[in-house]
């Protein structure tokens, strides 16, 4: 195997630009550890496409690694389609270099004779997913690193149905990319094949979002919303969609409204983190707002904060918002009359409460690996079934199937419809959620994420997961272990009887323990960040809404006990 220095030297040929060569020479002479980090591996596709730190090297996001991706994808498109008028659409977010990288990707496609529809300015990921089908493209690309820190960027690939690439296509495309050398990239653009797009697609997307996310909610005139785009792309869509749906009392956090790849007002542009929404929550308390909504930079994830039983603004987690949004949609479909082919969906690390609701409403429940591409694949694989809605614990939700990825634009409108309607009926988003706990069981979850950066961090994550698998728990807070679900081997084992069952999902590095009382603990490496994640799910019986605080406290205590037992 070539040494890392030998691999780095291959980037010193005339094919690479002078700045790249200068930086590599500097690293060779002055920083061998950093050189190693840049070249010890090739960036790989994970749950959300290719994502990584920007910079020179095979393990970085740059014009060459993305150019190679695009060349491989171009070759694959030509082999897959006999259509001479191949078309792709490209969008990009607010991150540093996103616009220039999008231009590079467009140029490589054009150099391969592929027609490109390139958004003239930054746009949301859900609009990109929508545009693929709306324009009639064979594929789509969005340049984004979602909620990752400022030094990251990424490249997500969508197929003709508007969903992200999934097996077997992803493997075939990766094989095509891996068969290339960097010198195979065609950078000689054909400007005649690159067309800028903007308002026409915007209008169609806004109309579709309002159509799918609006349910004639009452009380819009008396419902106050505070919205923050966290310096990201949702500023181009959410205020307009809310306006068209009839919401007039929307306060935008102006300090966070301007797109900025440095995300200067937050530690992390991730609505999962309470700190990210602190400025919006403070404003909501000042003006007496009913709801806070914040989205990540590419607007596929949304965080919602609402007034709790004590009247204080409280950030909900992704499971909570998913549960209530799905229940609301189920109620709408039930009122229309179920046709018998409806289904809802979530992921294997999300709340089991979704399955309980599906049983209660008599609709099909489907579960997928982590990543919205798998939910998009369900819609594609079951064309005669009707997707109502679904989400995942990591703050993503999809309303219907007009967009084939998590969509914070339409989901924001849906959340506002639920909350405005509830307030008009003398309730609230929070109280409606508690009522759902009474009806279906009180499920409470917590995520523990542990960051381990770099080459050594990757090894630490690997070892932590190995230890978790090889040293299974016997009990969790006094409840005996019942099942071990190993998605690497596709086997579920009943540890009490020894019976084994087959998991009918693609293999994945996920291990889940389930105890007799329904407690679930899942572990997996993040597909988009240098993290290992532990998902804890507990449940209890809530006989009446008045008991909520005491049962909630009991579940919190139980979760803290689990965290202590696992030394997390």
Automatic annotation (TrEMBL):
<dbReference type="InterPro" id="IPR005841">
    <property type="entry name" value="Alpha-D-phosphohexomutase_SF"/>
</dbReference>
<dbReference type="Pfam" id="PF02880">
    <property type="entry name" value="PGM_PMM_III"/>
</dbReference>
<feature type="domain" description="Alpha-D-phosphohexomutase alpha/beta/alpha">
    <location>
        <begin position="317"/>
        <end position="437"/>
    </location>
</feature>
<dbReference type="InterPro" id="IPR016066">
    <property type="entry name" value="A-D-PHexomutase_CS"/>
</dbReference>
<keyword id="KW-0460">Magnesium</keyword>
<dbReference type="GO" id="GO:0016853">
    <property type="term" value="F:isomerase activity"/>
</dbReference>
<dbReference type="Pfam" id="PF02878">
    <property type="entry name" value="PGM_PMM_I"/>
</dbReference>
<dbReference type="InterPro" id="IPR005845">
    <property type="entry name" value="A-D-PHexomutase_a/b/a-II"/>
</dbReference>
<dbReference type="InterPro" id="IPR005846">
    <property type="entry name" value="A-D-PHexomutase_a/b/a-III"/>
</dbReference>
<protein>
    <submittedName>
        <fullName>Phospho-sugar mutase</fullName>
        <ecNumber>5.4.2.-</ecNumber>
    </submittedName>
</protein>
<dbReference type="InterPro" id="IPR036900">
    <property type="entry name" value="A-D-PHexomutase_C_sf"/>
</dbReference>
<keyword id="KW-0597">Phosphoprotein</keyword>
<keyword id="KW-0479">Metal-binding</keyword>
<comment type="similarity">
    <text>Belongs to the phosphohexose mutase family.</text>
</comment>
<feature type="domain" description="Alpha-D-phosphohexomutase alpha/beta/alpha">
    <location>
        <begin position="44"/>
        <end position="182"/>
    </location>
</feature>
<feature type="domain" description="Alpha-D-phosphohexomutase alpha/beta/alpha">
    <location>
        <begin position="207"/>
        <end position="305"/>
    </location>
</feature>
<dbReference type="Pfam" id="PF02879">
    <property type="entry name" value="PGM_PMM_II"/>
</dbReference>
<keyword id="KW-0413">Isomerase</keyword>
<dbReference type="InterPro" id="IPR016055">
    <property type="entry name" value="A-D-PHexomutase_a/b/a-I/II/III"/>
</dbReference>
<dbReference type="InterPro" id="IPR005844">
    <property type="entry name" value="A-D-PHexomutase_a/b/a-I"/>
</dbReference>
